[in-house]
Specification:
Length: 521
C-alpha cells in the first residue's frame, strides 16, 4: 500500500528532526542522564515536529539499547511501538475525545503498570480541544501521576490551555522551519524517491510551505503524481500559483495609477484557476519584499527569492518608497481579513487594488503661526460697561430719590487697556435716618375693658344631672384614663382666635371707627 511522503519520511531519531536543535538537545540530555519528567507540553504551528518528537521520546525512554538519548530502532520495543503492537504508548486525539468521560477512562488506566515497557506514555494531541470539565478531571492525575506514567501534550493554540495545566508541564516551543532547511530536506527526499526536482522548484515549495515540513512534502507528493521531473512551472500549476512576474505587473499598474490594468490582470489570473486568497497572500509578501528593498540595509532580510527577483526588488523598491509599500500591505491585509469572514474574495481584492490605484489622501497639517509682538486691538464699546451700580435702599415711595452724579465713560486709548469700573460705595446709614422719622405712627390697638371677661374665661354652663346609670358610665369612662367630656367642651385653638377677633370688632364698632383705620381725633 502506498504511503504518503510525510508519513514515510517521518524522522525516527532525534538527529533527523529539522530545525529544532534546542528542543532536541534538551530531550536527549534528559534521557541520557535519567532526569525524565512526568509531563511535557509541545506547542507550535502545524508541521514543525511536535507529534514526531513525542513519538521519538516515547521510544527513547523505553528503548532497551538507547544511543546518546536516541532510540536504537532495532530492539523489540522500538519495532513494537512503530508497528503498534505494544499498547503501552497511547496516542489520543483530544479533538474527538474531548469529554470528561474520556479523561476519566484514561485516569483509570493509569493505575495499571505497563505490560512490556518501562514507562506508559500518553500522547494527547490537540489538547486545547478538551472541555473545561475534562481539564479539571486531568489536573490531579497530571500533577501527581504514578511513577510509571508520562504525559506528552501537543497543541497549536497554547492560549487556550488553562494556566493550571501549563504550570504542571515542561513547555517547549517549536519554531517555524526556515525555507533553506525545507528546500534541503525536500531535495534529499526527492533524490531518495527517484524524482528530478530542480532548485527553483524546491525553493518555490519551501516558500509555499510557510515553515511547515508536512505541507512541503504534501506539495512534493502532489507534483510527483503528475511527473517525475518537477520544476517551478509544475509546482506553480499544481499548487495553484503562476509565475511571480504577475506580481510585478500588478504593482507596476498600481504605481502608475492604472486600476483597469490591475483589475484585468486579476481577471486573467482568476481565469487560470488561481486561488484569490493565496494571490492576496502573495501580494502581501511581494510588497513586504519591496518595503525591505527600500529599507537601508534591508537586502539581507530578503529570503526565499531567486537572484532575478532580488535584482528586480532592489530596483523597484527604492523607487516606490516605504510609505507606499506599507499602505499596500495594510490595504491587502484588511481585504484578507474580510475574506475570512465569508465575503466574496474577488470583490474584496478588487476593492483593495482600486483603492491602491488612487493617490494617497494628504493629511492637512495646520501651519504654526509665527510669533509677533502683541498689538492691543481697539475694543468695541460694551453696553452697560460704565453704568454706575445703584445699591438697593429701603425707602418709602413718597421720598425723593437720591440723585447721584452720572459717571461718563472715559475715552478709550489704543495703547492702554480700559480700566475696570470702580464699584460705587453704598450711602451711609445716616442718610436714611430722616426718612424713617417721617413715617406715620402705627395705630394702637384699643384696650379691652376689664369688666367684660374674654369668652374663654367665662365659666362653662352647668351640665344637667345625669341619671344614675349614665353617671356610672361617665365615671367609668373617666376612670379609664380619658378626659372625654372636658375635651369635648373645650373649644379648639382656632375658635379662640376667632372669638378674640370678633370681640375686638365689636369694641371698635362701639367707638365709631373701623378696626383697620387709625382712630379719629
Amino acid at each position: 500500500m502506498y504511503r504518503a511522503l510525510y508519513r514515510k519520511w517521518r524522522p525516527q531519531r532525534f538527529e533527523d528532526v529539522v530545525a529544532q536543535r534546542g528542543i532536541v538537545t534538551a530531550l536527549r540530555n534528559q534521557i541520557a542522564t535519567g532526569r525524565v519528567g512526568h509531563a511535557y507540553l509541545f506547542t507550535g504551528v502545524r508541521g514543525t515536529g511536535k507529534t514526531t518528537c513525542a513519538k521519538i521520546f516515547a521510544k527513547a525512554v523505553n528503548c532497551l539499547h538507547p544511543q546518546n538519548g536516541d532510540p536504537c530502532g532495532e530492539c523489540e520495543i522500538c519495532r513494537g511501538i512503530d508497528n503498534g503492537s505494544i499498547l503501552d504508548v497511547v496516542e489520543m486525539d483530544a479533538a474527538s475525545n474531548n469529554g470528561v468521560d474520556d479523561i476519566r477512562d484514561l485516569r483509570d488506566e493509569t493505575a495499571y503498570t505497563p505490560s512490556a515497557c518501562h514507562y506508559k506514555v500518553y500522547i494527547i494531541d490537540e489538547v486545547h480541544m478538551l472541555s473545561t470539565a475534562a481539564f479539571n478531571a486531568l489536573l490531579k492525575t497530571l500533577e501527581e501521576p504514578p511513577a510509571h506514567v508520562i504525559f506528552i501534550l501537543a497543541t497549536t493554540e497554547i492560549q487556550k490551555v488553562p494556566a493550571t495545566i501549563l504550570s504542571r508541564c515542561q513547555r517547549y516551543d517549536f519554531t517555524r522551519i526556515g525555507p533553506e532547511d525545507i528546500a534541503q530536506r525536500v531535495e534529499y527526499i526527492a533524490g531518495q524517491e527517484g524524482l528530478e526536482l530542480s532548485g527553483e522548484g524546491a525553493e518555490l515549495i519551501s516558500r509555499l510551505a510557510d515553515g511547515a515540513m508536512r505541507d512541503a512534502l504534501s506539495i512534493l507528493d502532489t507534483c510527483a503524481g503528475v511527473t517525475a521531473k518537477i520544476d517551478a512551472d509544475v509546482v506553480r500549476r499544481m499548487a495553484g500559483v503562476t509565475d511571480r512576474s504577475y506580481l510585478f505587473h500588478i504593482s507596476d499598474a498600481l504605481e502608475a495609477q492604472d486600476a483597469a490594468a490591475a483589475l484585468a490582470q486579476l481577471a486573467q489570473l482568476r481565469q487560470q484557476s488561481v486561488d484569490v486568497k493565496r494571490l492576496t497572500e502573495e501580494l502581501i509578501a511581494h510588497y513586504r519584499a519591496l518595503m525591505l528593498a527600500a529599507l537601508p540595509g534591508g537586502q539581507a532580510l530578503l529570503s526565499g527569492v531567486s537572484p532575478e527577483e532580488e535584482k528586480l526588488y532592489l530596483e523597484k523598491g527604492p523607487r516606490m518608497g516605504q510609505r507606499e509599500a506599507i499602505r499596500a500591505i495594510r490595504a491587502l491585509g484588511n481585504a484578507l481579513e474580510h475574506m475570512t469572514r465569508g465575503s466574496d474574495q474577488r470583490i474584496e481584492l478588487e476593492l483593495a487594488l482600486f483603492s491602491l490605484s488612487e493617490p494617497p489622501q494628504q493629511v492637512a497639517v495646520q501651519a504654526v503661526p509665527v510669533a509677533r509682538p502683541a498689538v492691543p486691538a481697539q475694543e468695541a464699546p460694551r453696553p452697560f460697561a460704565s453704568a454706575p451700580v445703584k445699591p438697593f435702599v429701603c425707602a418709602p415711595a413718597a421720598s425723593a430719590p437720591v440723585q447721584e452724579p452720572s459717571v461718563e465713560p472715559a475715552p478709550m486709548q489704543q495703547s492702554e487697556p480700559e480700566p475696570a469700573p470702580q464699584p460705587v460705595e453704598p450711602p451711609k446709614a445716616e442718610a436714611a435716618a430722616p426718612a424713617e422719622e417721617e413715617l406715620p405712627p402705627l395705630p394702637e390697638e384699643p384696650p379691652v375693658p376689664s369688666e367684660a371677661p374674654p369668652p374663654w374665661d367665662e365659666p362653662a354652663p352647668a351640665a344637667p344631672p345625669h341619671p344614675a346609670g349614665q353617671a356610672q358610665r361617665h365615671s367609668d369612662r373617666r376612670g379609664l384614663g380619658g378626659r372625654i367630656e372636658q375635651d369635648r367642651l373645650r373649644p379648639p385653638p382656632a375658635l379662640f382666635c376667632r372669638q378674640r377677633a370678633g370681640r375686638r370688632d365689636e369694641l371698635s364698632a362701639a367707638k365709631g371707627h373701623s378696626p383697620l383705620c387709625p382712630p379719629r381725633e
